[in-house]
């Protein structure tokens, strides 16, 4: 099992320096890059390699549809065909899907080889590249095959998000909003007051975001690397969010579904007397300015969302636990637990209110 402590390097325009840094850290290792067709088209693979020849695997088509066990098998077999062994370091260059698949392939290849993440999206830079969650989907559910496989290092070049399309860019920012809500009111206020700069992809604002995201997520993961309790706070907005994402047939992007889930969590907090004056309005205003959905899609049946909640992988007695807030910047804890029971009637009422 790799170390849960690792280097995270953040900077603007650092991508050309990443290859020599990996080479220096993993002297004598074979380097194998996993990326996708969008990242290649954006020019990031060329920038990473700087003209050097390197074994690589390009995931096609990009996106959740390729997050399958077949893709993981194809990556493992490509490394075998190149005669790579345990002296291999896998480099995930791309967004959340690339990181999840490449991380999983690294975890199972020859019983596990190091993975280095080079995230290029707002979602991966804020969340998925940090913390060691890897996996691929089954035909029935997300991340059905998976492993905790902590990276050897993470290199975040904030300038790479310049090539993201607007929808991807905005929805990845929802995870940053989540970090402020669960752990740092000052960070939420920074996002609130610098949203124009963030949306304009201002590099100073993005660097502040990356530093806060890595610090917040890094601390939580360090305390609870295998999600026994505290790490569950990172799932704020994700319980209903995952159900909504699946109910949309993955038409909604992850961050979009989580935005709806965050609104739902706020409504549950209201039902349980955990709200503070103005908090839900402020959260809604930030999400609306990000232009992510805050309501269920018109054609989505509420019953489907409720049914999917019963299949949540963290469900106990077929009903999931929820992460809630006590106040801005602080997750609710009940009897020492951060994921708490909420009765069905309240959840069903809240899902109906997401219209
Ligand atoms: N994205 C939630 C976690 O890494 O735990």
Layout of helices and strands:
Layout: E1 7-11, H1 15-25, E2 30-36, H2 37-41, H3 44-49, E3 55-59, H4 69-81, E4 88-94, H5 96-108, E5 115-119, H6 122-128, E6 133-136, E7 145-148, E8 153-157, H7 166-172, H8 174-183, H9 185-193, H10 195-199, H11 203-223, H12 238-247, H13 254-271, H14 279-289, H15 302-310, E9 325-327, E10 330-331, H16 344-353
Parallel strand pairs: 1-8, 2-3, 2-4, 4-5, 5-8
Antiparallel strand pairs: 6-7, 9-10
The protein binds glycine.
Domains, number? 2
How confident is the prediction overall: mean pLDDT?
A: 96
The low-confidence parts are none
Structural class: alpha/beta
Q: How many H/I helical runs?
A: 16
- Listing every helix as H and every strand as E from the N terminus to the C terminus, the arrangement reads EHEHHEHEHEHEEEHHHHHHHHHEEH
Beta-strand residue fraction: 5-15%
Strand order of the largest sheet: 1-8-5-4-2-3
What is the CATH topology of the largest domain?
A: Dehydroquinate synthase-like, alpha domain
Architecture of the largest domain in CATH?
Up-down Bundle
What is the radius of gyration computed over CA atoms, rounded to a whole number of angstroms? Answer: 20 Å
Bound molecules: glycine
Fourth-tier CATH superfamily name of the largest domain: Dehydroquinate synthase-like - alpha domain
CATH class of the largest domain: Mainly Alpha
* Gross morphology: globular
End-to-end C-alpha gap: 45 Å
The major sheet is characterized as: 6 strands, parallel
The total of beta strands comes to 10
- What share of the residues lie within helices? 40-55%
């Amino acid at each position: 099992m790799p170390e849960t402590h690792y280097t995270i390097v953040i900077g603007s325009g650092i991508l050309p320096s990443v290859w020599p840094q990996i080479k220096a850290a993993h002297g004598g290792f074979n380097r194998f890059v996993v990326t996708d067709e969008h990242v290649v088209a954006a020019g990031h693979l060329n920038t990473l390699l700087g003209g050097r020849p390197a074994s690589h695997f390009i995931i096609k088509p990009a996106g959740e549809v390729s997050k399958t066990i077949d893709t993981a098998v194809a990556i493992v077999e490509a490394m075998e065909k190149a005669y790579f062994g345990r002296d291999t370091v896998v480099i995930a260059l791309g967004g959340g899907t690339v990181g999840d698949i490449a991380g999983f392939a690294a975890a199972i290849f020859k019983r596990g080889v190091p993975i280095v993440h080079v995230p290029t999206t707002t979602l991966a830079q804020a969340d998925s590249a940090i913390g060691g969650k890897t996996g691929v989907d089954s035909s029935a559910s997300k991340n059905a095959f998976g492993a905790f496989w902590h990276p050897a290092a993470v290199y975040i070049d904030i300038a790479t998000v310049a090539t993201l399309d607007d929808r991807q860019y905005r929805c990845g920012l929802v995870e940053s909003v989540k970090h402020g809500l669960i752990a740092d009111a000052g960070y939420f206020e920074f996002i609130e007051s610098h949203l124009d700069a963030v949306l304009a992809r201002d590099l100073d604002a993005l660097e502040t975001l990356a530093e806060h995201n890595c610090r917040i997520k890094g601390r939580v993961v360090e305390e609870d690397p295998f999600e026994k309790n505290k790490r569950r706070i990172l799932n704020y907005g994700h319980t209903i969010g995952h159900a909504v994402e699946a109910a949309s047939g993955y038409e909604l992007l992850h961050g979009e579904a989580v935005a709806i889930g965050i609104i739902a969590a706020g409504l549950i907090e209201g039902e349980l007397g955990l709200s503070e004056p103005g908090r839900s309005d402020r959260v809604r205003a930030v999400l609306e300015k990000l232009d992510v959905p805050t309501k269920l899609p018109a054609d989505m049946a509420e019953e489907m969302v409720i049914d999917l909640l019963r299949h949540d992988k963290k469900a106990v007695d077929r009903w999931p636990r929820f992460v809630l807030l006590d106040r801005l910047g602080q997750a609710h804890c009940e009897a020492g637990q951060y994921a708490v029971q909420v009765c069905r009637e309240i959840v069903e009422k809240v899902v109906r209110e997401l219209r």
